Amino acid sequence: xxxETTVENQHEEVETQIEVGIKNAYLTVANDxxxxxxxxxxxxxxxxxxxxxxxxxxxxxxxKDDLINAxxxxxxxxxxxxxxxxxxxxSIALAAATTGTGGFNPSFNVQAKSTQSNSKSKQVTHQTSNxxxxxxxxxxxxxxxxxxxxxxxxxxGDVTFGGNLIIESVQNxxxxxxxxxxxxxxxxxTSGPSGSxxxxxxxxKQSQTVVxxxxxxxxxxxxxxxxxxxKGGTINSKKDxxxxxxxxxxxEDMVDENSNKxxxxxxxxxxxxxxxxxxxxxxxxxxxxxxTIGQGKLKIKNDxxxxxxxxxxxxxxxxxxxxxxxxxxxxSLTIDNKIFSEKGREEMMKKLNSKNIINxxxxxxxDQIQKHFGxxxxxxxxxxxxGFSKDFVNNYVESKLGIDISKLLNxxLQGFTQEQIQxxxGxxxxxxxxxxxxxxxxxQIQxxxGxxxxxxxxxxxxxxxxxQIQxxxxxxxxxxxxxxxxxxxxxQIQxxxxxxxxKLLNxxxxxxxxxQIQxxxxxxxxKLLNxxxxxxxxxQIQx
Length: 543
Known about the structure:
The chain is an alpha/beta fold. The chain folds into three domains: about 25-95 and about 460-540, no CATH class; about 115-330, no CATH class; about 335-430, no CATH class. Helices cover about 40% and strands about 35% of the residues. It is built from 19 helices and 18 strands. It has helices spanning about 25-60, 65-95, 340-350, 355-365, 365-375, 375-380, 385-400, 405-410, 415-425, 430-435, 435-450, 455, 460-475, 480, 485-495, 500-505, 510-520, 525-530, 535-540; strands spanning about 1-25, 105-125, 130-140, 145, 150-160, 165-170, 170-190, 190-210, 215, 220-230, 235, 240-250, 255-270, 275-290, 290-295, 295-300, 320, 325-335. Helix 1 packs antiparallel against helix 2 (about 65-95) and helix 1 packs parallel to helix 13. The longest helix is centred in the N-terminal third of the chain and has 34 residues, at about 25-60. The protein is flat and about 120 Å long. It starts with a strand and ends with a helix. Mean pLDDT is about 70; it is low at about 20-25 and about 100-105. Pfam families: Fil_haemagg_2. InterPro entries: Hemagglutinin_rpt.
């Protein structure tokens, strides 16, 4: 029985990411606020856990140590929350105290990338049957067909067919193909623009013969009145006690072909260099399964002189072929972008011998570069750098990435960047390119984050911070701005957490912790704080 399985997968993904960063004390406030919320959640969970542990302890299901550990966990998390809240107050104070825009450092980063991939595989397998017989006779009045299976005699046997007998081996096969291409473009306010394209393909084929035949550990007689046809199959007696008589003999060897092909091309470009890469690797192997009749008597009625050349040596029934390397090409080329400007070429020629460059190109082979990259390096060798650069742009960067880098190659980095960001991401960077970093940042933050930074840009950092914290966090920092750090901290913790931190601010950490546990958990920890764990536990159990 033959089974065929085919699997296909396709995937396409496009991603665009824009980051406009504001590195200042206000963001630190936001981060500390998140940390405070997490700490409060952890304390609430620990309190719930303590209640459950207390219940299980009362039922005798947990030990005294389990109860003490749960109680100590609540104490530690209460202290941790207090310290994080204090840190939040400090960060808000720092934000309010900072003046001017010295600490304001916007950053701009754009990334756009796409991935396309598809794969396909096909597998064909055969379910075959083998008959194991001690000693016996197999008779067929007319024709017989053994496909992929075998008849095996343990002691000896006789096989007789009045008509034709076909012994045919089968092949299990596997084929797969994969293709993937990636394209990307990025621009960073510090490192400038860059682009890349990568395309890879792979194909694999495998086949393996499942041998059919008639074999015996003792004597074996085979009589076929008509034609015996063997395709990659075997008739054999392990004791060489074989007697085969047929009217006519036809045979065919089977070849298993295994191949692996991989091909990859990549192009990357940035403001300083262009890199090209090409690789192709192809291997092939052929294994032969020969139609074989083992040692013994062979009589073919229409070939009385015995001229048949069917294989009679079982040791040669299978021959593993050599793995042949059909192709193994690896080419890489990096071009300094200085070559695209007159000034850059002059600078390069001062440092490099142009003959060495030309010799290197000749070593790689202009025909190989032309064939795999579509770039005519003859122009480069002849000194036509302008023609060479245009070929490169037309054949690679523009066609593969869809990016017109002619302005970049002409040294107009500002024009190139402005066009690409405007075209691909819908961001108008004209103010940025004109040097109006403040105006650009204000527009982007207003448009993308919904934050009005006019006060910040006007130098009113205190007013901006106060507005944003009030608007986004719901925190009134008037006392903080007035210099009443203790009053502000106390108000915020009281308002947002329901915790009276007066004792904490006075340095009475033990009293503060005791009050909080008493207030939020209903547990009197006086004995616990005094080291009387036994008395504390007894009180809790009683309560």
